[in-house]
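Loading example: each entry is read as two labelled lines plus one structure line.
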Amino acid sequence: MKLTDEEVRYVADLANLRLSDEEIVRMSHDLGHILTHIEQLNELDTANVPPMAQVLFEADEVATLREDIPRTPLSNQDALANAPASGGGYFKVPKVIERS
Amino acid sequence: MSFSDNIPSLTIQRVREGLLNKHFSALELAKASITYAQAENPKTNAYLTFSPERAFAAAARVDDSIAKGEYVGSLAGVPLAVKDVIVTKDLRTTCGSRILENYKPPYDATAVYRLEQEGAVIIGKTNCDEFAMGSSNENSAFGPVRNPRALDRVPGGSSGGSAAVVAQGTAVVSLGSDTGGSIRQPASFCGVVGVTPTYGRVSRYGLVAFASSLDHIGPFARSVEDAATVLEAIAGRDDADSTSAFAPVDDYHALMHEPVRGMKLGLPKEYFEGLSSETGQVIEAAIRHLEKLGCEIKEVSLPHTKYALSCYYIIAPAEASSNLARYDGVRYTIRADGETLADMYRNTRGCGFGPEVKRRIMLGTYALSAGYYDAYYKKAQQVRTLIAQDFNEAFKQVDALITPVSPFPAFKIGEKIDDPLAMYLSDVYTLTGDLAGVPCMSVPCGQSSEGLPIGLQIFAKHFDEATMFRVAYNYERSTKQ
């Protein structure tokens, strides 16, 4: 299994990762190597095996529901405390919409 | 003060006796412990942050309760360290990553809250592989941890710091997290007890998410009893984690003291193929010892074991690629500027994450991308069902399973870092426990000819931690000099 540099760049875009040219080369080698190993799963016939959607849950379906009682949420100040840029009670990001 | 000399060999019980008999106060112990841990830390790099203010405040509360004759919790005054992927309010929590280098969480993890409710004294946060991704602790952005038993070797990973502080004696117990072996493998490499409880036994609220269907919080300790005490304190239903279990928490201490005579222990044959001869001999001797204690030993088969690595390296990276999407330069401390919002995201993540985290995000994104979902993710989830069924079948025949933790003891720093697949293979015996969600642990059972610790792995049925502890405790007690 071999991943081309173009495929690696496409996946990096999906993942919002900036990779250097050097990282792209290394990544296509490493991912190819790992995916080759992973191909062994095709030895198994799983046509009639259900996927394991939930690890373990022994209680009934509504067990996790609780009464709707108001609780004090995280304050605006606490929620913004770790933001690299904030102002007026909001997170600041680069301009997304141009003013016309 | 004489007790400071004994810090490396303290147990929960000894701390309790010392406090209640007024040999020392909790505050004196907290101060001496942090001073000792700070002095020892340059050898191993196991702590990333010390928390003296928080520790002294917790210790003062314990001293106050003792002075007033009030109830003191099961962990009163016990110096404890917490892996840096578990959040602590206002105390820096880095996940071993540059991207969270200055992150101060606005809340405590449920496990941390429960420990402090029982009087535990958190003295610091421990180093780990970045976002718990690794098997050697070399993936930390803050430098590798050195194994206190052999300083040129890795402590294992990803909870290498939490294993090292307990082995080194700078904390009595610690918390780690396990997604594919990250508690048991470092416990084995450092010669301490490490426990991965049943999935859902301990709330994951406040455990920074890596792979949500595989993540567990669990304890490290120098004895089976201490590990059980910590697990009892943190286990049990928590409304803040809807996957946490309602099943009642057993009285582990009462049950582990029962003898093991007549218990049926299974040896899954797939775990003994290709084992290094030295590790094999030590495990073999431990099995013979359990047989002498009256256990019936029976060979069993977990036929899908060889597919666990492939299964895991689809599911865990897939979940990670989704969970780590939140580190985008908006909410969590670090931002690298860019012309557009997308550029800012990409630049922040490109310089904030280390190579292994990037590799797993890429692998997971690829496996979940259009056209590949059925071939990879769905296939892996089906194989996961088969792996879990293997355990169910085995537990129809035996009470517990006995295996090695790792195919080899601690390797040298740098030895495997350039070959990701070789590194992944060091978890080949531990991944299955996380995939099946069963409780499992590592208990020290000997050492290699070079003096490197080797651990014995014990698996039990879902929610049957008591049986696992019973085997471990009987083994430990009958082999200790």
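The longest helix of chain B spans residues 374-394.
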